[in-house]
């Protein structure tokens, strides 16, 4: 992996892992799939390996990503879904021709119609987003508590009280900020 590109932040939910390829949307945004090859890399680690990606396919991916982000954010806030976002998600879902196949080990794998079909991979991601936004899956859509992030994430914790999209980044930063604030407070009261 070229060191010049930011790492991925992979969660266990496909659609919100995908929206997480752009992070810090309300701060200094970090684009984690800035070039077609990085989308190829992301798809490979997400079980949707493709051989290649064109700049136009990357554009489609970005468009889908922001549509999922907009629709999931609205759903998390219990607001009406933006029609344009719904349209993009539905178009990508309808255009994909991936097939779910069962491996001999009893696992589900996605089989794309051809090795260059980024559209098929995007169809799988769109369908994943639909199942979350439609409330079909066990979990709760929520927004990250970090003010610079506010990413929509899918909370599958038992208590449904997760606050951050990602414990290792947003959660950790918040914990550290609190720790230092407390230390400053302690130092002041000791004077
Ligand atoms: Zn976050």
From TrEMBL:
Superkingdom per UniProt: Bacteria
This protein's name: Zinc finger CGNR domain-containing protein
Record-annotated Zinc finger CGNR domain positions: 140-182
Stored Pfam families: ABATE, zf-CGNR
